[in-house]
């Protein structure tokens, strides 16, 4: 990764030096989505969206640290219990998924019973739609 460092010398002229900086962060690991019922949420993401379980560890009281995501993806959703987050109503996810064929993706999701909040629309920058999970969390789809 290249970056530029700006320096001011004694005559107040700005110069820049090209340096190589190691990446501190490799990728976004997880995004939290707060759910009422983890088994129902897990079933939704696996059966309706073809996600897979990336990580599932027991946290006690029948609750799990549960990560799901698209196959071969580095980023996952954490389906986190609302019961452990007293302020979950203030924490809304803003997540948009990319797809290469949004028309087919929307049609498949509808066939599987997924509820759409915003129907597929052709916006100035591309096509977009949004759907809801069983807890009412909204997720976007875009063709990019």
Topology:
Blueprint: E1 2-8, E2 14-20, E3 30-35, H1 38-49, E4 52-60, E5 63-69, E6 76-81, E7 95-99, H2 102-111, E8 115-123, E9 126-132, E10 138-143
Parallel strand pairs: 3-6, 7-10
Antiparallel strand pairs: 1-2, 4-5, 5-6, 8-9, 9-10
Written description of the protein model:
The chain is α+β, with helices and mostly antiparallel strands. The chain has two domains: 26-92, 2,3-Dihydroxybiphenyl 1,2-Dioxygenase, domain 1, CATH 3.10.180; 94-144, 2,3-Dihydroxybiphenyl 1,2-Dioxygenase, domain 1. It has two helices and ten strands. It has helices at 38-49, 102-111; strands at residues 2-8, 14-20, 30-35, 52-60, 63-69, 76-81, 95-99, 115-123, 126-132, 138-143. A four-stranded mixed beta sheet has the order 3-6-5-4, covered by helices on one side. A four-stranded mixed beta sheet has the order 7-10-9-8, with helices on one face. A two-stranded antiparallel ribbon has the order 1-2. A hairpin with a 2-residue loop joins strand 8 and strand 9 (126-132).
Summarize the structure.
Helices cover 15% and strands 48% of the residues. The chain has 144 residues and is an alpha+beta fold. It is globular.
CATH topology title of the largest domain: 2,3-Dihydroxybiphenyl 1,2-Dioxygenase, domain 1
End-to-end distance, in Å? Answer: 24 Å
- What portion of residues is helical? 10-25%
Order of helices and strands: EEEHEEEEHEEE
Query: Can you tell me the CATH superfamily of the largest domain?
Result: 2,3-Dihydroxybiphenyl 1,2-Dioxygenase, domain 1
Report strand order across the widest sheet: 3-6-5-4
């Amino acid at each position: 990764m290249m970056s530029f460092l700006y320096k001011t010398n004694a005559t107040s002229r700005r110069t820049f030096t090209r340096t190589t900086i190691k990446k501190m962060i490799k990728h976004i690991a997880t995004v939290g989505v707060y759910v009422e019922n983890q088994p129902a949420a897990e079933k939704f993401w696996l059966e309706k969206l073809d996600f897979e379980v990336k990580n599932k560890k027991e946290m006690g009281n029948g609750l799990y640290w549960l990560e799901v995501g698209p196959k071969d993806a580095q980023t996952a959703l954490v389906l986190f219990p609302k019961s452990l987050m007293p302020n979950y109503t203030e924490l809304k996810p803003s997540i948009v998924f990319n797809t290469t064929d949004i028309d087919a993706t929307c049609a498949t999701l509808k066939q599987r019973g997924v509820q759409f909040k915003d129907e597929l629309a052709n916006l100035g920058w591309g096509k977009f739609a949004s759907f809801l999970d069983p807890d009412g969390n909204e997720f976007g789809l875009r063709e990019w």
